[in-house]
Amino acid sequence: MLVDGKWNADWQPVQAADEKGRFVRQDSVFRDWITPDGHPGPEGQPALPAEAGRYHLIVAYICPWASRALMARALKGLEDVISITVVDPRLSNEGWTFGDFPGSDMTDPLIGATYMHEFYTHSDPKVSGRATVPVLWDKKTGRIVNNESADILRILNSGFGELANNDIDLRPDALLAQIEDLNAQMYDSLNNGVYKAGFATSQFAYEEANDGIFAMLERLESQLSDGRRFLLGQEITEADIRAFVTLIRFDAAYVGLFKTNRCRIADFPYLQGFLNSVLALPGIRSTVRIDHIKAGYYSIKALNPNGIVPTGPDFSELGL
Ligand SMILES: N[C@@H](CCC(=O)N[C@@H](CS)C(=O)NCC(=O)O)C(=O)O
User: Fold this and answer.
1) For the segment 115-171, what is each residue's pLDDT rounded down to a tens digit?
2) pLDDT score of 225 more than 90
3) Distance from residue 178's CA to the centre of ligand 1 (Å)
4) Cα 197 from Cα 102, distance rounded (Å)
5) CA-closest candidate to residue 69, choices 229, 261, 283
């Protein structure tokens, strides 16, 4: 990670642990906003004005948090407004890097960076913390606008005004309370829950995380069992994006590497149907790269020292 703008040690996946061996995730550092005319964000955040071609996303297809941003960009039809670059899914000793894995970018067109952490020090020479993806970058000022995917989802949904496809609203007012409630519960038990299982440093913390994960999967399965297409009805919302990015990685990576192997998503008929419904939406399929997901997670040396990537599972039922 970075300390006062310097890369200080080989990359390690575990960010921090509490006294019971639970994985603790760090908070994001860059939290500015983008709004149609540059007026402050919803909670008064300093904001830049929306502009076609000005902003850029740096992502990793392995990463669920980055994939949320990619999904929102696709659903809001912002592919021609916001450009992207993709890092190599395999983590180096200095974290994310550009590289030659198929589907990644070999070089960075923005500042000529080799490593992700260079975008952070370019934005703030004294920055401390982890150099995570996704990053929403402003080409005009040459700095990070925001590195928190929860914010980026909101920015993409409403910050680009008429530049976006506004037939889709990922946070409709009528569902906002339900979306926020489900988001919070899914974050703790599922989205971050799989990491809490995988990076637990005690049996207790691992089992606690597993109980949370499978209770949430059962709940989502039962919620979908009335035949609705998405978690809160017939239209996709932010809650579906958040669920999808974890569910699509589950059988490919978490079941094996993170030991969340009580059962697979393929064993839940409604969750599997939900994955198909989301994948059928325009632009979504290209945000999912199972090869990156497997290569990336299984490159985490602390969990898989020999770097062997499993050949399965078979994703043909989802057409992946
Ligand atoms: N809160 C951040 C978390 C992002 C995050 O943890 N990304 C991971 C990849 S899945 C990362 O870049 N990790 C690199 C590191 O921790 O050094 C967000 O949601 O945007």
Assistant:
1) 999 999 999 999 999 999 999 999 999 999 999 999 999 999 999 999 999 999 999
2) yes
3) 25
4) 29
5) 283
Catalytic residue among 63, 206, 297, 298: 63
Strands 33-35 and 6-7: unpaired
Give the tens place of pLDDT for each residue, 244-280. Answer: 999 999 999 999 999 999 999 999 999 999 999 999 9
132 lines ligand 1 (CB under 6 A): yes
State the pairing for strand pair 143-146/135-138: antiparallel
Give catalytic status of residue 195 as yes or no. yes
Nearest CA to ligand 1 atom 5: 132
Q: Which residue puts its alpha carbon closest to atom 6 of ligand 1?
A: 132
CA of 25 from ligand 1 middle (Å) equals 9
The angle formed by the CA atoms of residues 158, 192 and 286, to the nearest 5 degrees, is 55
Q: Which residues are CB-contacts of 174 (< 8 A; sequence separation ≥ 6)?
A: none
Q: Is the CB of 65 under 6 A from ligand 1?
A: yes
**One-character DSSP codes across 110-158:** TT--SBTHHHHHHH-TT--B---S-EEEETTTTEEEE--HHHHHHHHHH
Instruction: Single out the catalytic residue among 61, 195, 206, 297.
Output: 195
Length of the chain: 320
List, in order of start, the domains of the chain with CATH numbers: 2-163 (3.40.30.10), 173-281 (1.20.1050.10)
**Is residue 263 among the annotated active site residues?**
no
**Cα 131 to ligand 1 centre (Å):** 7
155 touches ligand 1 (CB under 6 Å) = no
> By the 8 A CB rule, do 232 and 239 touch?
yes
